[in-house]
Amino acid sequence: MKIKDGFILREVAGNFIVVAVGNAVKDFNGVITLNEVGAFLWKKLEGGATEEDLVDALLSEYEVEKDVAEADVKKFVDKLVGAGLVK
Amino acid sequence: MPKYKIADVVFEAKLLYGYTEKLCKSYEYSGDQPCAFTAVMTEEDIQAENNDATQEFPAAYLESLALFRKLLNYALKYSDGIVFHSSAIMVDGNAYLFTAPSGTGKSTHARLWREMLGDKAVMINDDKPIVRWVDGAFYVYGTPWNGKHRLDTNCRAKIKAICKISQAKENTIRRASTAEMLLTVLNQTIRPTEADVMDKLLKMIEKLLTTVDLYCLGCNISREAAELSYKTMSGEEL
């Protein structure tokens, strides 16, 4: 799984946002806000992580139970797929 | 070809219709500063502004929007300038920007300030002022794109505060966080599509949010609402 071209994560005054640039603006003209964990997962997805990679990354970075991490990752990925941000 | 000076940017414009020339009349420039750019309007530029599927606008009006876009493109790339959809009002040399989704009442609240403060309050722009970072401070500039009440002054003022308005029965005001204000500002400006220009915009917004005072105002339409927001943001008594 990978973030589509043209969607960029930026930190503005301590807040994480995703905006579209270039051709991606035609498909998405809004702004997405992410919390710190969302931004962490996003960066992993930029590198082409699988859902399992994301769960592993969460488990090694944060103190969280595996089933909670799996549920969080699924929710996050479903949102990105629903918004058409990943390929 | 007419020359204009808007937000301290001098440019000339080759226009196809008379409407924009009339609109920009009070921003005409006859000094000897060189032009930063020439805006040559084409039918293609004009039709690109016709992006509301529910309404047809006259080409002469669309041309004024196309010119505004050209000015903003230049301003963002070369002079740290952005549009900030808001009602900008100046009192004692300080500017206050009221922002909210269309129809919430930012123009109305600015009008309440004018009724309360009289000549002390100067309307800089009631719709699309330009905000620029100049010599270590943020300034708001009047532009001819001034909203349905046609309120603007060809001047600039240092920004003291940005205030997000929502409708409420009771009047309340509090400081806002950068997180609360970030989406508002991003949604009330025109965002570029080029990645490097987008980064310029975001850097500028970051600086804006960490430089000026930020407030959330819940208000009704009353003098009491205007008193509360004025006293709190200016630190002055009436």
What portion of residues of chain A belong to β-strands?
A: 15-25%
> Biggest sheet of chain A: strands side by side, in what order?
1-2-3
The low-pLDDT segments of chain B are: none
Structural class of chain A: alpha+beta
Characterize the quaternary organization of these chains.
heterodimer
The CA-CA distance between the termini of chain A, in Å, is 6 Å
Helix run count of chain A:
3
Largest interface: A-B, 13 and 18 residues
What's the β-strand tally of chain B?
Answer: 12
Spans of chain A of at least 5 consecutive residues whose pLDDT stays below 50 are none
| Overall mean confidence score, pLDDT of chain B | 96
The level 1 CATH classification of the largest domain in chain B is Alpha Beta
- Tell me, what's the shape of chain B? globular
Radius of gyration of chain A over alpha carbons? 13 Å
Question: If you consult CATH, what is the topology of the largest domain in chain B?
Answer: Phosphoenolpyruvate Carboxykinase, domain 3
Question: Which architecture of the largest domain in chain B does the CATH hierarchy give at level 2?
Answer: Alpha-Beta Complex
Task: Describe the protein.
The complex is a heterodimer of chains A (87) and B (238). Chain A has one domain (7-82). Helix content of chain A is 45%, strand content 18%. Chain A has three helices and three strands, in the order E-E-E-H-H-H. In chain A, a hairpin with a 2-residue loop joins strand 1 (7-12) and strand 2. In chain A, helix 1 (36-46) crosses helix 2 (51-61) and helix 2 packs across helix 3 (66-82). Chain B contains seven helices and twelve strands. In chain B, the strands form two sheets. In chain B, strands 4, 5, 6, 7, 8, 9, 10, 11 and 12 form a nine-stranded mixed sheet that branches. In chain B, helix 4 (106-117) packs across helix 7 and helix 5 (178-187) packs across helix 6. The longest helix of chain B is centred in the N-terminal third of the chain and has 20 residues, at 59-78. The interface between A and B is medium-sized, with 13 and 18 residues.
